[in-house]
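User: Hi! I'm a student and our assignment asks us to look at how structure tokens line up with a sequence. Could you show me two examples?

Assistant: Happy to help. In each example below, the sequence comes first and the structure tokens follow. Example one:
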Amino acid sequence: MTTNRVLVTGASGFVGRWSLEPLLARGAEVHAVQRHAPPTTAGVIAHAADLHDREAVESLMRRIKPTHLLHFAWIATPGVYLTSLDNPLWLRSSLQVVDAFLANGGSRVVVAGTVAEYDWSAGVCSERTTPCRPATLYAACKHAQYEVLERWSAQVGFSFAEGRLFWTYGPEESPERFVPGMIHASLARRPFQLRYPAQVRDYLHVADVGAAFSALLASEVQGAVNIGSGKGVALSRLGEIVGEETSEGLVIQPGDGANDPAPIVFADVSRLTRDVGFTPRYRLEQGLRDTVAWWKAHGSPASLTRPESRMQA
């Protein structure tokens, strides 16, 4: 990617910030846009812009003239984003961003999708064979973005892919999220409520997520590509590993486990591995060790005093 000029939206977000160094390592000229403070990553050119302001977006694209667009910006507030009415606003604004990008000579678009686009009754989710059946406004808007861009790219000829993200964890994650909740409960020696302990999910360290998106952008792969580990882990086992890494253990207060609508969901990562050529660096135990160490170094936030408020994965 030596001669390419990459624009990353949502560059201050949990995943976006972890994509910057892998892009730089590939030799890209990296521009990062967000609404307020610039990122601190050395070598990244920072820009402030409101992506809902069409004129501001068009001005930004005229100044930068990026060849590649990596689009992460979207509402992601824990406990809010799944049903927020900001989702349709982000869908509209995202398409405006792509339109301005293409109008200024851009050629390759990669956006962040979500596992929530899939019909979870399939268990193992494959881009080629698993039907999509979004169950929330967030998932519906993400999938609408995918369908519009897929058809748009086929019609006018630009290169497009969606990284369909499964579950993520790692340093700097919002304290309101699931894995930080487990870590805090363990460090505080407090029970953690888990409605479905046997539920199986696919977790990938955020450093690997950022690197995977960088690899996808650098590739010529088109369409949906799952961004996950390809391995399912029971949430009870996830809690055990957290307890082992904190050296404090973790007491799980389980629900009855009945009527779990999606007991097993994990990614088929054959496209990511074979077509993109990406393999994760972190094993789950190693990644959780890294994450626990980060929380120990930075302290457990006071907002995590109510484990019963933690969302089930």
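Example two works the same way, sequence first and then tokens:
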Amino acid sequence: MNKHFEHLRIIRNHYDRYLSELSLEQLNRIPDGFGNNIIWNIGHALVTQQLLVYALSGNKMAFEDDFINTFRKGSKAGEVSRETVDFIKANLFTTIDQAEKDFAAGLFQKYKEYSTSFGLTLKDIEDAIIFNNIHEGVHLGYVMALVRV
């Protein structure tokens, strides 16, 4: 699974670059034809990783309910503060590091089977970690499209 965590770090490096280079206004902007903004897509990626890996395995997530509800599937972007952007940026890699440690320590013994909107059924933690990278890649694509417009 080390390679999958490595791939996730590559995706998160792209998110980190955008968070560093773009203004708060650019991160919050929702162009015509889009349903959410750049910062929502990045926050959503963080939240979804926690839901797929931790919540579905019966473990405590790294974030409070308010943050999770702001960025979970089905939520809509609202304008976020610089503090929220900084919080997201601060957690891009700590959440990967913790998941990698927890995986190595055998924390994820149980897993509640989950069918994704992609049509895939996640049966165990390995499925969740692999699918999370697919999910984050999709949202990186949205971020790249939002940056271009």
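Here is something you could point out in your write-up. The longest strand covers residues 114-115.
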